[in-house]
Amino acid sequence: MSSSTKIDRREYLATSAAITGGIALPQFSHAEATTSLVQGKAEHVISIWLGGGMGQVDTFDPKRKGDPKKKVAGSYYNSIETAVPGVQLCEHLKALAPLMDRVTAVRTVHHEMIDEHAAATNRMHTGRPISGTVTYPSLGSLVTHERGAVNDGAPPYVLIGYPNVTRGPGFLGARHGYLYLTDTSQGPAGLSRADGITPTRQARRESSLSVLQDSAKPTDDSRLLDYDVAIAQSMKLSGPEFTRVFQLDKEPSDLRTRYGGEFGQRCLLSRRLVERGVRFIEVSHNLNFLNGIGWDVHNEGILQQHKLIQELDTAVATLITDLEKKRLLDKTLIVITTEFGRPPEFDSGGGRGHQGTAFTCVLAGGGLAHHGAWGETDELAKKIVANPVGVPDFFATICAALGIDYGKYLYDGDRPVPITDTGQPIAELFA
Q1: Taking 50 as the threshold, does the pLDDT of residue 353 lie above it?
Q2: CATH node for 41-190+250-430
Q3: Checking CA distances to 382, which of 139, 177, 243, 345 falls within 20 to 30 Å?
Q4: Which pLDDT belongs to residue 29?
Q5: Residue 375's pLDDT is what?
Q6: How far apart are alpha carbons 171 and 135 in whole angstroms?
C-alpha cells in the first residue's frame, strides 16, 4: 500500500467505532473539517466554580421581580443596566456591570442531567454524563493534555479547592492531574517537606531514588511512568522559585483589600499563577460561611444569597481589571460555571429548586469578541428562546479560545473519544 493510501490506525478505529455504534458520521473528512476550525489565541484559563447551583434569574439573566411570600415567580432582586446596551444584571453585580463589554454571559447553557448535584457537577467538569465504563477527564486535564504548562517551571493545572475525581485526569493518566491547595495562606501541603527533612536528607533521598530508577528494568506501564513524572514535577516545584507564587503578602495591601476575603484571595492567587506560567486554574467558591449553604439556596438559604453574589462581583471585577492592567486579560480566559441554575418559582420556604434546562455560564477576557450576553431565555429565564448552547458547545468554545482542535479524538486505550463530545463553539465570539 502506498503512503498516500495508508489509513491511520486511530482514524480507522474512530470510523469503525462510529459505524458499529450506529453513529452517523458527517459527510466530510476530519482533515476537511479542521481547515475551518475556529481558533483563538488565549494562553490561560481561570475557571471559577460556583458549587451548589448559581441562580441565573438572580444574577446574570434577571427578569421581572417576583415575590417569594406571594409565590409570584421572578427574580429576587432588582436589575441594573450595564456597559452593553440592552444587557442587564442583578443589582448586586454593580462592579461587573460597567465591565460587561469584556464579558459574555452565556444565558442558554443546558444539559439533560437529572437535577442532582454530583451528576451535574461531573457533567459540567467533564462535559459528559457519568459512564460506567469510562472515567472521562476534566476540562482542566483536557486543556493541559493539549497545551501543557506555559512555562517549564510551573505545573500545568492547579486546583484551589477540594480535590475529587470529577476534576481529575480520567483516562488521560495521573501526569495530567492537578496540584491543589485549600488555603491561600499556606499553599499546597504536598510541596512542603515534613518536619525533620533537612536539605541534606532530601538530597540523599533523591540520590537513592535515582539509583533505584536507573537500575529498574524498562517499563511501558503508564501508571509507573506517570508516577515518575509526578515525582519529578513535585521535586521541581517544591523549591523556593515556584513556591514564592503563594506569598500573597507581597502584593500591595490595597489590591488585596479590593479582591476581598478568602475567595477574593483565591482569585488574586490565580492571577499570580497565570504570571508564573500555569495553564489552567480552577478556583472553587465553596466557602459556605457567608450564608451557611453556598449557592444551593433552597428555602431560607436565599435570604443571604446576596452576600455570595456581592463577593463574586467584587472578586471577579477586580480580577478582570487587575489582569487588564497587567496586559494579561486577552491572554486569559475567565470562565464561571455551576452545575445548574434555579427555577423562577419559589419553594415553600421562599427559596429555589434546581434547573438544568436553561442556566447561565460566563466567559470574560481571553481575546474573545464579547457581547455582554449570548442566547435568550423566556420572560422568566425558564426556557430557551434563541441560541441554545449545550455543554459540549460551551467546552468547544473554551477549547477554540485556546487554539485547541475541538473536533479531534482522544483515546482511552484504543477507544476513540471526541474531545468535546462533538461540540461546536459559539462562532460569533471569534468574529
Answers
A1: yes
A2: 3.40.720.10
A3: 139
A4: 34
A5: 98
A6: 6
